[in-house]
Design brief:
Oligomer: heterodimer
Number of helices of chain B: 27
Mean pLDDT of chain B: 95
Number of strands of chain A: 8
Helix content of chain B: 40-55%
Distance between the termini of chain B: 38 Å
Largest interface: A-B, 19 and 30 residues
Mean pLDDT of chain A: 94
Strand content of chain A: 15-25%
Shape of chain B: elongated
Distance between the termini of chain A: 35 Å
Structural class of chain B: alpha/beta
Strand content of chain B: 15-25%
Radius of gyration of chain B: 36 Å
Structural class of chain A: alpha/beta
Shape of chain A: globular
Strand order of the largest sheet of chain B: 1-2-4-3-5-6-7-8-9
Chain lengths: 304, 705
């Protein structure tokens, strides 16, 4: 059973695509919890919504391709600027002018793009486990970019599973492996089960569409794994230009996007940096209490 | 030795009167601390300066007439205007363009006038026990003795020492009386010595001049009100509720007129600067840090003035916790009659508590429903309670966040959690959040896999057990006491999992044992007969009570028992079956049959269970142990996949040689009918259930309050 049901549910529609949103609570300011990689949907905020909704109006929505949103087969729908436009559409539909915006992993890109394209809509920005091509990837993930479109590995080890053909043939195995890396803290069984079950709502076909989206910086990099100069310049420029109060939260044991990414993002943005020592890629799930309290502090600080 | 040596000190010649000042620290903003001379001087702030100077630039000075400042003896040297000019000179001399004024008692009046006439020099005001006349209420002893101020009294005593001639001739006597009255807090000997010493550094003559000088140009209520209303800056008022010098109503009025934040100190008198320095310092710091967003006014109570406060969390999963927790609470009140107990609880526990007149914390209504979740997880005669608990993760964190706000706000001495999984788990995960002592109560230890879950479930239960064991090993300070509701023999002889300890060994090392807590005294033969009469069970009719839990699980068992009724009636034609459906099953939806009566919720079900000739129940601990205590024959069907009922409860009942275990899936109505016929009215040989469990638990808890 959910701890708190939304007060309002509905769909925002942009260019014919329906985006399922939920609103809980009525306090001020509004807080927008962004989607992340399409592999999971908005329920990954389940440890935050009941708490935040006692103090603020909380809006969550599913990105194109998962949850209660339509599955778009257009790769351009998965571009960060497109996500930013979706977020604006959701805010408009909910009648919200301005919100504190929280993005996790790829959601950090969407949040930065939203703040860059529509600064008047963002009262504050929180970047969690940010997926940003700012520093070279850790060695075990460095080979992914080149191997992604290659043949499926037959006896894959570790990140070799990050391969399009393997997704199609062994989606569950990939998903299980991936979330064991995401939720790398001991005793994470329940969190992994949740994430895997949400991933099964997406499927490899939609992830393939998403993976074909154009790189944000105009460079060659797919995903954030193998940053080239164009991508780095693009994101560094946006971070430096951020005008709203910004908070970066990053675990030291993040196996997806290293802690240094968060440090670099905070440096570029002049943001406050919260390091969660021992935490992996989703501290909101594995350290929900601390995460919630940090988020509350930040939101109280940017209250207008 | 002083805790903070001034970085700068100096003396200003202010039109012939020396004014001594000090500067401590370099932070921003500047705070100007103004003592209410001449009865005291800047050392009054000795408990504030070292702390505040680590964060801010602290300027203070001795007001004219005491300390290292001059001692003019004419009243016209002590007017408000002169003191206001002193403040200005100190700010100029220390190159303080702008400051937050921190003033005590009548120095707040000076500060108010200074802020009014030099608005650009002041960014905020912290008024401690503000002595601004005409506001709120004056203490009657000031009004009464004002009339005799100039008279020569015959052997004056008490407040009549407030007299110009006493000041002049018996200075010490007045000073000792005054500070003796002000320090209402017990154990104030050192502050008293300090205050008297500082006062006696001046003279009676100066003190008279100070008293008379401040009233030159007497105030009008309208003028004071206008000045307060016009004070357009952040204001903080700190006022002791027992202040004998400035009535607390005066601080309240000052806060109201200035739109300021009021922090009332319960149990505190006129000198919280010295008697409650920690709360004063932290309140000042918090105010200065958040000048744009002041807090709501509130009351802080001195430690020794607080009543003992307990926050009791009683698990809503199953109805058994509520009764035993009430018994423990009653026993705790026997030991500590002055204890206040708030309950953070949810349905169905709250209805039991409210029925007993207990105080349910209003935040309880925000809690997400754990019993609703459990009901949603149950189907048929099946409740996979381990997986249900895992799937309750978002409810547990949502409810913990509420609990944490309640416990931080309520200043509880003790938190008692009867299987309050959220508190125990998240305090171990966030140990810095612990507030108050913590008692953990449970009637089982260790998650155990059910066979249907295979190896994976065995892996999961072991992982959960390992996490709990690691929590307690790493943070033994989180559970100040862990109480197992039962005896060591009741702990199951199983392992927590591969590579983990034996449950019993570990539990004996980490728990105290209260024995079982029934929540009622087992009835004697006389009571049993009386209950039977009350309930209308005839002496010669065999009565079989079928009861299911409060969680909505149980329709299947009720229906199976009802189906067995006509079969059993073939051997027992007078058999009367009393089915208790609980609050969540509508009795009218069950089949009817001659000899069958169906009830919804039954208060004090233990009477029915004790007075009947046979009970047919699920495997819940509370119900089966009530039956054991009252020596009623019973047949129990643990819920499928419910590890606690199938393992822990069954093991415990075996210790008491109690009940007949049957497997729901393997029992058809015919077999149940045969069992009813065999068991009904049998004389049982159960071991006695110990009494006094609640008192033993309460005694273990009481040491922490």
């Amino acid at each position: 059973m959910r701890a708190r049901l939304p007060d309002r549910q509905g769909h925002a529609v942009r260019d014919g695509l329906r985006l399922g949103f939920e609103v809980a609570g009525s306090g001020s300011p509004s807080v927008l919890l962004l989607p992340t990689w399409t592999i999971i949907h908005s329920r990954f905020w389940k440890m935050q919504v009941p708490y935040l909704a006692r103090h603020y109006q909380v809006i969550t929505y599913d990105g194109p391709g998962n949850g209660r949103s339509d599955r778009s087969t257009d790769p351009f729908r998965y571009d960060p600027d497109s996500y930013a436009s979706d977020a604006v559409e959701v805010l408009d539909t909910c009648g919200v002018d301005r919100a504190v915006v929280v993005g996790l992993s790829l959601g950090a890109q969407y949040g930065i793009s939203l703040a860059a394209n529509h600064p008047e809509r963002v009262a504050g920005l929180v970047l969690v486990g940010a997926a940003l091509p700012l520093v070279p990837p850790q060695p075990e993930r460095a080979a992914i970019g080149a191997a992604f479109h290659g043949p499926a590995p037959t006896k894959p080890r570790g990140w070799e599973r990050y391969n399009l053909a393997y997704w199609h043939s062994h989606y569950e195995d990939f998903v299980q492996f991936f979330f064991e890396q995401v939720l790398s803290e001991p005793h994470s069984t329940k969190a992994i089960e949740d994430a895997v079950s949400w991933a099964l709502d997406a499927g490899p076909e939609i992830l393939e569409v998403e993976a074909a989206r154009p790189p944000a910086g105009g460079g060659r990099s797919s995903e954030t794994i193998d940053p080239d100069a164009e991508s780095i310049d693009h994101w560094a420029g946006l971070l430096e230009a951020l005008a709203c109060p910004t908070l970066v939260i990053h675990g030291t044991e993040d196996r997806i996007h290293q802690h240094q990414v968060g440090l670099e993002a905070a440096r570029l943005a002049g943001a406050s940096m919260i390091t969660m020592e021992g935490s992996g890629h989703m501290p909101n799930v594995r350290e929900p209490v601390r995460f919630n309290l940090v988020l509350r502090d930040f939101i109280e600080g940017v209250k207008e | 030795m002083r805790a903070s040596i001034p970085d700068i000190e100096g003396v200003i010649d202010r039109a012939g009167v020396d004014i001594y000042f000090e500067v401590h620290g370099h932070g921003v903003p500047a705070l100007l601390l103004i003592p209410p001379g001449p009865i005291t001087h800047s050392r009054l702030f000795k408990a504030q300066v070292p702390y505040l100077a680590r964060h801010f630039r602290v300027v203070t000075f001795d007001a004219r007439g005491n300390g290292r400042s001059g001692r003019p003896v004419e009243r016209f040297a002590h007017t408000r205007a002169e003191n206001v000019l002193d403040i200005l000179s100190v700010m100029d001399a220390t190159e303080t363009t702008n400051a937050i004024l921190v003033a005590h008692c009548h120095a707040v009046w000076w500060a108010l006038e200074f802020a009014t006439f030099h608005r650009e020099r002041v960014s905020g005001m912290i008024a401690i026990e503000p002595g601004v006349p005409t506001l709120g209420r004056s203490q009657p002893h000031w009004i009464e003795t004002a009339a005799t101020w100039d008279q020569v009294l015959d052997q004056p005593a008490g407040w009549n020492l407030n007299n110009r001639h006493v000041y002049l001739n018996e200075h010490r006597k007045w000073v000792e009386w005054f500070f003796g009255q002000q320090l209402v807090e017990p154990h104030s000997s050192k502050p008293f010595e300090d205050a008297v010493t500082w006062a006696l550094e001046s003279t009676g003559e100066v003190l008279v001049a100070g008293e008379e000088g401040i009233e030159v140009e007497p105030p009008t209520p309208e003028g004071i009100d206008e000045m307060c209303r016009s004070l357009d800056m952040p204001v903080l008022v700190i006022h002791g509720e027992l202040d004998v010098c400035q009535h607390v109503d005066r601080g309240r009025a000052f806060a109201e007129l200035t739109g300021g934040e009021l922090v009332e100190l319960e149990g505190a008198g006129h000198l919280p600067l010295v008697r409650d320095p920690v709360v004063v310092n932290r309140t000042i710091k918090r105010f200065v840090d958040n000048m744009e967003a002041p807090m709501n006014s509130h009351v802080w109570t001195r430690g020794l003035n607080r009543r003992k406060k307990v926050l009791y969390l009683s698990s809503p999963i199953g109805l058994g916790h509520a009764r035993r927790d009430l018994s423990i609470a009653q026993e705790l009140r026997q030991i500590h009659p002055d204890v206040d107990i708030d309950w953070l609880a949810q349905d169905p526990v709250t209805s039991v508590l409210e029925g007993e007149g207990e105080k349910v914390h209003p935040a309880s209504e925000w809690l997400a429903s754990e019993s609703g979740h459990i009901a949603s997880e149950a189907s048929g005669h099946d409740l996979h309670c381990f997986q249900a608990l895992r799937r309750m993760d978002e409810i547990l964190v949502a409810n913990f966040m509420i609990f944490q706000e309640v416990v931080e706000e309520g200043m509880y001495d003790l938190v008692i959690g009867d299987e309050a999984w959220d508190v125990d788990h998240y305090w171990h995960e966030n140990p810095e959040l612990k507030r108050g002592s913590h008692v953990w109560l449970t009637d089982f230890v260790g998650f155990l896999p059910m066979p249907s879950g295979g190896d994976h479930e065995a892996f999961l239960t072991a992982d959960y057990n390992a996490e709990m064991i690691e929590h307690i090993a790493r943070f033994p300070r989180i559970r100040d006491r862990a109480i197992f509701v039962g005896n060591a023999d009741d702990v199951i002889p199983a392992s927590f999992g591969p590579g983990l300890p034996k449950i019993r060994d570990w539990t004996e090392q980490h728990f105290d044992f209260s024995g079982y807590i029934t929540g009622f005294e087992p009835p004697n033969a006389g009571q049993l007969a009386q209950w039977r009469t009350e309930l209308g069970y005839h002496a010669d009719e065999p009565v079989c009570v079928v009861a299911v839990g409060g969680s909505g699980v149980g329709r299947d068992l009720l229906e199976k028992a009802i189906a067995a009724l006509p079969m059993a009636c073939r051997s027992l034609p007078d058999l009367r079956m009393v089915a208790v459906a609980g609050p969540r099953i509508d009795p009218s939806t069950l089949p009817s049959h001659p000899g069958l009566e169906v009830h919804g919720y039954v208060d004090r079900l233990y009477k029915n269970l004790a007075a009947c000739d046979l009970a047919v129940v699920q495997g819940g601990l509370t119900t089966t142990m009530e039956l054991t205590a009252s020596k009623t024959p019973f047949i129990y069907f643990p819920l499928n996949n419910h590890f606690e009922q199938n393992h822990h409860v069954r093991h415990r009942l075996d210790q008491y040689n109690a009940g007949r275990h049957m497997d729901y899936a393997l029992t058809d109505p015919e077999q149940l009918a045969a069992a009813i016929v065999t068991e009904i009215g049998n004389r049982v040989e159960y071991r006695d259930v110990e009494s006094g469990g609640a008192a033993r638990a309460a005694a273990l808890i009481a040491e922490l309050v």
